[in-house]
Amino acid sequence: MPGGIGVPTDTDGDGRYEDVNGNGREDFADVVLYFNQMGWIAANEPVAAFDLNGNGRIDFADVVALFNRL
Ligand SMILES: [Ca+2]
Ligand SMILES: [Ca+2]
Predict the structure, then answer these.
(1) Which of 19, 28, 39, 67 has the most CB atoms at less than 10 Å from its CB?
(2) What confidence tens digit (pLDDT) does each residue in 13-47 have?
């Protein structure tokens, strides 16, 4: 993803990519990148893989959900 380090990874095996920037762990940079690339994610990635709160779309609530995991 633009601005990322590597391929996003699923750090806990739940089928969602919490490690958005692909550096191998969940960190604040993932929250920032998710926020900055929300439109890109919605357009280019499978929604289910990045819909962290499970409401069926890529939205700001997912950024909050990601932040709350830290
Ligand atoms: Ca990360
Ligand atoms: Ca969502």
Answers:
(1) 19
(2) 999 999 999 999 999 999 999 999 999 999 999 99
Instruction: For residue 26, give the ligand nearest its CA.
Output: 1
Separation of CA 15 and ligand 2 centre (Å)? 14
- Distance from residue 8's CA to the centre of ligand 1 (Å): 8
Domain ranges of the chain: 7-70
Report the separation in Å between the CA atom of 32 and the middle of ligand 1, taken as the mean of its atom positions. Answer: 10
CATH architecture of 7-70: Orthogonal Bundle (1.10)
Q: Quick one: which ligand is closest to 11's CA?
A: 1
